[in-house]
Every structure is written in structure tokens, then in C-alpha cells.
Amino acid sequence: MSEPLSSRLATPADIPALKVLMERSISLLLPAFLSPEEVTASHEVMGLDTQLIADGTYFVIEAGGAIAGCGGWSRRATLFGGDHTSGRDAALLDPATEAARVRAMYTDPDFTRRGVGRLILSLCEERAAAEGFKSCEMAATMGGEPLYTACGYHRIEPFEAETSSGVRVPLVRMGKAL
Ligand SMILES: CC(C)(COP(=O)(O)OP(=O)(O)OC[C@H]1O[C@@H](n2cnc3c(N)ncnc32)[C@H](O)[C@@H]1OP(=O)(O)O)[C@@H](O)C(=O)NCCC(=O)NCCS
């Protein structure tokens, strides 16, 4: 039987394990949605954003003592990417007029379709609403879009992230009123 899921805030001590989980998640789950070249390029525009851990807005989901997934939200402008991704903007958003960001959602391949993603999204929406945000947005991967659609997000605009290899990674900006 499946172990129940529990949530807690991520701490700096989690960083090595989260990096491994993210690499596994990108490498094993995205090939169902992207070409091999796009999966390789995805590593450049995805990954760990340590600002979220410092801000106390990043969650770890555990099941039976193992980390099953991670993800979070942000009151800062950066829409997607890890510490290594270009185009970051740490400016604080205005909850009255701007959408909180949903960021860096990853489920370990051994724990997919058990509600990990759905649980993280609900935690993010609850915390963002408590800080006065009226909506959430994210840059969804092609692998993330089915989850967000199932959780009430609508497509705003498809776009492509450019990478240093020249390969462009398809993404879609999605949003939801809280
Ligand atoms: C996207 C991701 C986080 C989803 O994680 P998950 O924990 O498996 O999602 P959940 O179990 O909460 O799924 C909730 C619902 O979303 C939908 N869904 C999730 N994954 C899906 C998939 N691969 N295909 C179709 N629908 C899917 C389903 O409606 C599902 O409900 P159901 O299982 O009862 O049918 C995971 O696939 C992942 O880590 N992908 C690789 C990294 C990535 O692209 N992250 C998104 C960044 S924007």
C-alpha cells in the first residue's frame, strides 16, 4: 500500500538530494513529451532555485521517509529556471496586481501519479492567497501542463526558452485565479 504523503519546508540541507531528484525527474519523465535534444536542453532552463528555499516558499513532499517530490511558489518576478538559468529577476511582486509564481515542481519518477504535484500546488495556492495574491502563474513544461490543466490552470501563452546549444525548449505560461 502507498505510504501517506507529508509536507514540510525545504532547508539548505535538502539541496544535494533535491538536485538528484530534479535530474532524475527531468531525464526520466520529460522524454514522453520532448525530443532527446529538448530534454538535454531542458536542464539549462530548469532546476533548483535556492532563493525559494531562502524565502521559505519551497516544499518537500515525503512518503515513508523518502523524498517524493518538491516544488514551491514565489513572491518574486522570476518565472522559471534554476540558479544557473539566465534572465532572473528577484524583484518583489505586488500581490494586488501581479500573479504569484508557481516554481520548480518535480516529482520523483518512483512517485508519479500519487498526488504529489497536486498537493504541492494546493500548498502554494494556499500560501500565496494568504499573502494577498489573487492569482498564480507559471511557465509550464510540456510534462507539467497536464497537471496544471487538471488543477484548473488555463493556457495564457506558449513560448520557447532559448538555450546555449541553440535548441529551443517549448513552454507555456499558464495561470489561475485564486
Ligand atoms: C509534472 C509533475 C510534477 C506531475 O507530478 P505528479 O506528482 O505525478 O502529479 P499528480 O500525481 O499530482 O497528478 C495530478 C493529476 O495531474 C494529471 N497528470 C499528472 N501527470 C500526468 C501525465 N504524465 N499525463 C497526464 N496527466 C497527468 C492527472 O490528471 C493527475 O491526476 P490522476 O493521476 O488522478 O489522473 C511530474 O510529472 C514531473 O516531475 N515532471 C517532470 C518535471 C517537470 O516537467 N515539472 C514541471 C515543471 S513546470
Short description:
With 178 residues, this protein is α+β, with helices and mostly antiparallel strands.
Structural features, described:
By secondary structure, this protein is an alpha+beta fold. Helix content is 29%, strand content 30%. It has 5 helices and 7 strands, in the order E-H-H-H-E-E-E-H-E-H-E-E. A 7-stranded mixed beta sheet has the order 1-2-3-4-5-7-6. The mean pLDDT is 97. It binds coenzyme A (COA). Coenzyme A (COA) binds at residues 25-26, 29-30, 69, 105-107, 112-118, 138, 140-141, 143-144, 146-147, 150.
Radius of gyration: 15 Å
Named CATH topology: Aminopeptidase
CATH evolutionary superfamily: Gcn5-related N-acetyltransferase (GNAT)
Low-confidence stretches: none
Any chance you could write out the topology, listing elements then pairs?
Elements: E1 5-9, H1 15-29, H2 36-45, H3 50-55, E2 58-63, E3 66-74, E4 100-107, H4 116-130, E5 135-141, H5 145-150, E6 154-162, E7 168-177
Parallel strand pairs: 4-5
Antiparallel strand pairs: 1-2, 2-3, 3-4, 5-7, 6-7
Main features:
seven-stranded mixed β-sheet, Aminopeptidase, binds coenzyme A, 30% strand, single chain, globular, alpha+beta, 178 residues
